Amino acid sequence: MKIKIENRKEEIVTTSSKLFKEKGFSAVSMRDIAQSLGIKAASLYNHITSKQEILSIIIIGVAEKFTSGMDRIVNSDDDTISKLEQIIELHVNVTVNNADALGSLNNDWMHLLEPELSYFLKLRSQYEESFRQIIKLGVKQGELEPLNVEVMLFSVLSTLRTLYLWYAKKEGVDTKELVVQMKKVLLRGIVLKP
Amino acid sequence: MKIKIENRKEEIVTTSSKLFKEKGFSAVSMRDIAQSLGIKAASLYNHITSKQEILSIIIIGVAEKFTSGMDRIVNSDDDTISKLEQIIELHVNVTVNNADALGSLNNDWMHLLEPELSYFLKLRSQYEESFRQIIKLGVKQGELEPLNVEVMLFSVLSTLRTLYLWYAKKEGVDTKELVVQMKKVLLRGIVLKP
DNA sequence: ATTGTAAACTAACGATTGTTAGTTTTGTGT
DNA sequence: ACACAAAACTAACAATCGTTAGTTTACAAT
What we know:
The structure is a homodimer.
Chain A: H1 4-23, H2 30-37, H3 51-74, H4 80-97, H5 101-107, H6 116-140, H7 149-161, H8 163-166, H9 175-188
The first copy, chain A, binds a DNA duplex through α1.
C-alpha cells in the first residue's frame, strides 16, 4: 500500500490554500500550516520539500485548469458570443471548485521561484492573448461593439478573476443562476435596453 | 522651520506603497524600505512609529478618498445612470493619482490592526451599501435591467477595483478616453446592439 | 562661533522564520 | 511476534524580522 502518502500531501496543499487566501503566502508560516493540521512544522517535510513547493502546486495546478479550458474554447468553431459565454462558465466552474487556490493565483504568484515563475507568466499571457483574439475577431465580424479591445478584455477578465472574493458570501445565488446573471451583466451591460 | 519632517514621512509612505504593491506588506521588510530610500532601517523610526503605521496611512488615506467621493455622488440629485458614470470617474481618478496605494487597499487590508481594521471595514461596507442602493433605485425606476443586484454590484466594482493592475501598462489609452470606454463597457456591455 | 535639533548612524535585543538531523511512534503485511 | 516503512516527534541551526538605545552628523538660528 503506498497510495496513502498523496492524501496527506493533498491535505497540506488544501489547508495551505485556505490560509494563504486569508493572509497571503508571506504571512503564513510553516508552523501555522502545521498547527491547522494538528502536527508540528517539521513533520510537513515528510510530505513536501519546501514551502515554495506548496505554492507551486496551488498556483500551477489551477492555472493549468484555466489554460486547458481556454484551449478547448479556442479550438471550437462556435461564434464569438458563444465562446465568451463558455469563458464565463469556465471561470465560474473553476472558481466554485477551487475557491481557495484563486487567492494565491491572484495575489501570491510573484513569490514563485524560477522556473515556475516564468512558466506561470507564460500561461497567463497566453490565456490573455487567446481571450484578446476572441474579442478582436468578434469586433471584426460585427458581433461585438467597436470599443477599445484592452478595456473590454480587462473589464470582463477583472470581474471573472475576482469572482472568488464575493461569490461565497452570496448564498442567494446558485451556480447555474450565477452563470446566467453574469453572462447578461458582462455581455449586455446593466443599463436597461429599450 | 519645522515643515520638513512631513516630507520625509511622505517619502517613506510613497516608497512603501510601491514596494507593498510589488510583493505585499508581509514580504517587504523595514530594511527593504530603508534601502529604497538610501538609509538604514533604524532611521525610519525618526519619522514613523511602526511598520503598521505606514500601512494604516496608505490604506486609510485612499479609502477615505473613495468614501468622500461616494458621499458627494450619493448626495447629488442626478439620475442613476449619471451617478454610475460619476462612480466610474471617481475610480479612474483615484486610481490614476494613487496607483501604488491601491495594491495595499485591495490585498493588505487584513494586516491592519485594531482600531484601524474595524474602521476600514466600516468604510468599505458603507461604500458598497451606497453603491448597492444606487443600483437598487435604478432598477426600481426602470433605468437599469432587472438583474440580480449583487451580481451587478460586484461585477462593476471588481473591474473598478482592479483597474490599477492594468491601466498602467496600456499607454495607448489616456485618462479621458479610458473613462469614456469604461462607461460604455461597464454600463452598456460589449455585445453589439442592433 | 555656539547652540539646538532633525535625521542619520552603529549595535544589538528577543522573537520568529524555513529547514535539517536524528529519534520515536504508529500501523500494516508477513 | 516481528520487521519495515510511513509519519510523527524533539531539538536545534542560521538567517532575518521589527524595533530600541545610544551616538554622531548636518545644518539652520542665534
